[in-house]
Amino acid sequence: MAKLELTFFSQALEMNTTVSVLLPDKLEKNERLRPFYVLHGYNGDHQDWSRFTSIERYMWAYRACVIMPSGFNAYYTDHQVGLAYETYFMKELVPYMESVLPLLKEAYILGLSMGGYGAMKFALGHPKKFIKAVSLSGVMNPDFIRSLPWMSHRLPVFDKIFGKQVSGKNDLRHLVLKDLKSGKLPKLMFTCGTDDFLVEDNRAFKKFLDEHQVDHRFIFDSGEHSWEYWDRNLQKALPFLFDK
Predict the structure, then answer these.
(1) Architecture (CATH level 2) of domain 2-242
(2) Domain boundaries in the chain?
(3) Which segments cross the bilayer (predicted)?
(4) Contact (CB, 8 A) for 191 and 237
(5) Each residue's pLDDT tens digit in the chain (244 positions)?
(6) N-terminal to C-terminal alpha carbon distance within the chain
């Protein structure tokens, strides 16, 4: 595949931001590719997926454009105090990618950990744009992170991002109920390792989906919060996304 690295200025973030892109080596005349947004986790950047997984090799089997943005530690959210990341993603990044690359309008999205939350937040918040979404070891409720004693150092940061409690468009449960009411839901897949510190957060979210009869696929298998797990489950997610 061809690999591009694009850097452009974001008005919403008030800084330069970088995106890594994978494209098939050859494009057919007038071909338009499925945009596939892939989000990294906390402390990561746009290079993570290419550095720590074999995503490029796995994508040889599919015709798609893989778009891997830097998400900083922003939780893919417009902060109460700080970055306007969701505005950047939806109002700047997505339109920019569609203007410079031969892309279809409807997209797929996948993320790990913080990026799993971001993938679900964008897909549930914009189901006409993101028609399929996958979370690998995702944060299903950022308030669950607040409850972990060893995460107490992140509390001031979370207060600036979400306020004192996650609510509204930052609450995945709220977005699910909103989509159910409108009759428009993306196709959803989740995985989480049984030794992952987020497994109870994921089990609680699965229970919520089951109670509201939301169609989804949830895999709980052996593994920790690690790149070995995410590389392995990326291989399970791609057939779900690309129908192979």
Answers:
(1) 3-Layer(aba) Sandwich (3.40)
(2) 2-242
(3) none
(4) yes
(5) 999 999 999 999 999 999 999 999 999 999 999 999 999 999 999 999 999 999 999 999 999 999 999 999 999 999 999 999 999 999 999 999 999 999 999 999 999 999 999 999 999 999 999 999 999 999 999 999 999 999 999 899 999 999 999 999 999 999 999 999 999 999 999 999 999 999 999 999 999 999 999 999 999 999 999 999 999 999 999 999 998 5
(6) 19
